[in-house]
Specification:
Blueprint: H1 9-30, E1 34-37, E2 40-43, H2 44-67, H3 72-91, H4 95-117, H5 122-127, H6 135-162, H7 165-185, H8 188-194, H9 197-203
Helix pairs in contact: 1-2, 2-3, 3-4, 4-6, 6-7, 6-8
Pfam family, one: IspA
Organism: Rhodovulum marinum
Family: Belongs to the YciB family.
């Protein structure tokens, strides 16, 4: 397996957040317009989605080229973008793309939940090098994150089915990002309690 290569954090963040920001800007510019292509009318949302698909593939490819590694989460996200984004464009139906976050978060919740049923924290396998912590801490954090992802899946379903497209785009662009950031910010006490860095300090 190829070793991970260092990458500038700002560049990494740009590559990860860039496609979402580009989708949001494209939607704002195109949302009130209708385009006829090949005799079929497409609204701005569908065209913004069509542009998002290759962009997420390009940025994911650049991340892989620069770091020699992409996470399973990034791979799953890219695959689901291609599948559901492609269905949105092919069938000219925005519902498929709006369902994508539901599938992603339900999948993450299911994977984490399956690991918990086996007495394992799959989250620990992914993040242990970045955030060393005792096993009991990983189990608690994984349980909380599984429930959190399940809640996001339900929330996405409620919003896209009951609210306007504008509301859903704002939720996807800002709401989900803020929610995930906020979740990890609120786990500080847990990480501090079960973090193993203090043990290293005691030995110094």
């Amino acid at each position: 397996m190829a070793d991970k290569k260092p990458i500038n954090p700002i560049l990494k963040l740009t590559l990860e957040i860039g496609p979402i920001a580009a989708f949001f800007i494209a939607y704002l510019r195109l949302r009130d317009q209708v385009f006829t292509i090949g005799g079929t009318e497409y609204d701005g949302f569908v065209l913004a989605t069509a542009g998002f698909i290759p962009l997420i593939l390009v940025t994911t490819g650049i991340l892989w080229a620069l770091t020699g590694h992409i996470s399973k989460m990034q791979v799953a996200t890219a695959v689901l973008v291609v599948v559901f984004g492609g269905l949105t464009v092919w069938l000219n139906d925005d519902r498929f793309f709006k369902m994508k976050p539901t599938i992603i978060y339900a999948l993450f919740a299911g994977v984490l939940g399956a690991g918990l049923l086996r007495g394992q924290s799959y989250l620990q396998f992914v993040m242990e090098e970045v955030m060393p912590m005792q096993r009991v801490g990983w189990m608690i954090l994984t349980r909380r994150l599984a429930f959190f992802f399940a809640a996001l899946a339900v929330l996405n379903e409620v919003i896209w089915r009951t609210m306007s497209t504008d509301m859903w785009v704002n939720f996807k662009t800002f709401g989900l990002t803020i929610a995930i950031f906020g979740f990890f910010m609120t786990q500080g006490a847990l990480i501090q309690k079960y973090g193993i860095e203090e043990e290293k300090d005691d030995q110094g």
